[in-house]
Amino acid sequence: xxxxxxxxxxxxxxxARDFAKNELLPGVIERDxxxxxxxxxxxxxxxxxxxxxxxSPEYGGGGMDTVSYVLAMEEISKIDASASxxxxxxxxxxxxxxxxxxxxxxxxxxxxxxAAGESIGAFCLSEPEAGSDATSxxxxxxxxxxxxxxNGTKNWITNGSTADFYIVIAxxxxxxxxxxxxxxxxxKGWDGFEIGPKEQKLGIRGSDTHSxxxxxxxxxxxxxxxxxxxGFKFAMKxxxxxxxxxxxQALGIAAGAYELARExxxxxxxxxxxxxxxxxxxxxxxxMHTSIEAARHLVMKAACDKDNGENYDLSGAMAxxxxxxxxxxxxxxxxxxxxGNGYVKExxxxxxxxxxxxxxxxxxxxxIQKIVISRSILRD
Length: 380
Ligand code: CAA
What we know:
Helix content: 40-55%
Domain Acyl-CoA oxidase/dehydrogenase middle: 122-217
Oligomer: single chain
Strand order of the largest sheet: 2-3-7-6
Domain Acyl-CoA dehydrogenase/oxidase C-terminal: 231-378
Low-confidence stretches: none
Number of helices: 11
Distance between the termini: 24 Å
Radius of gyration: 21 Å
Mean pLDDT: 97
Protein name: Acyl-CoA dehydrogenase
Cofactor: FAD
Bound molecules: acetoacetyl-coenzyme A
Structural class: alpha+beta
Keywords: FAD, Flavoprotein, Oxidoreductase
Strand content: 15-25%
Largest sheet: 4 strands, antiparallel
């Protein structure tokens, strides 16, 4: 395996690093505290091409590979995981899904705006009774004349109130179980579409998470993605790529926390010397660095699999499982290295620790990743 980055990869990584430092770092603590969506910053990310990185240039995207995307995700996530989840959902769950499975009209009407960052997308699969058990969709989309009638509730939707376009998964033929599910593009503002209150979250507090209600929303037939009954496969295929994005987010949170801890250990003194000179601290940093490198290799392997046209269900699930555990472990240790300072907001590591937890939950919990991994390795 050759993980050597090209000049273009390095340029993209450096651009994301500079953007994160110059545009996301200022105010990140306050946005977290006030649960404030990084509106201006996301607008700039769109202008710089970070919201439609892998979309074909003919639809206004960057035409970049997945390696470029994960490099950028890591850098943005080191500083602001609330901004990186917007980036991840827009790139992997919304743009990729439309680019790969949408028809020409859908791409012209929706993808071009999403890829340019002029519009933001949301992906609506989870429901009050269908989180991990995603086939148990209770939201219905019943065919009537030239449209579908959508009814139901979606939960924990990232970009819930800031999105313009929503990909909504719903059951059309309950008797067919998952084979009767469809995916639809729904626009904000359509009659009967209500946005519920904002969730008060432990971490990624700048991201905008809501429940959504659909009461007899009329969705034109042309807004169904793919053939009748393709919705569950659409969701699974899209989430497989999404998991690589979240793995990169987790890697970034871990790397961000580690870098802060490493630098702190060089300046903080205890017992007459910088704390890096105490083996108790140096060994923690060694462990953190090693698990981050291992996570980075898994993330890169999954990204390369996707770029090389290989199946990435297994490598993506392994990357997410391991990188999210790394984010959790490393951020807890980063707080420990900082001691009392780690527990207060201005040192950033407590926020990264809170942000890390969601990477073990969304886009498939760690337990779901183990289902995907174990089924894959036991299949043959
Ligand atoms: N690609 C293509 N098809 C797939 C697939 C994949 N990766 N994974 C499953 N399928 C297909 C199966 O082949 C099967 O189809 P057939 O019957 O035609 O063969 C169908 O989907 C059903 O699959 P299973 O029988 O495996 O279904 P299951 O109920 O046993 O479990 C699961 C599937 C993997 C557990 C799935 O339910 C799952 O991934 N759950 C987690 C859901 C999730 O990740 N939610 C995240 C919400 S989105 C989010 O968090 C976004 C955000 O805002 C940040």
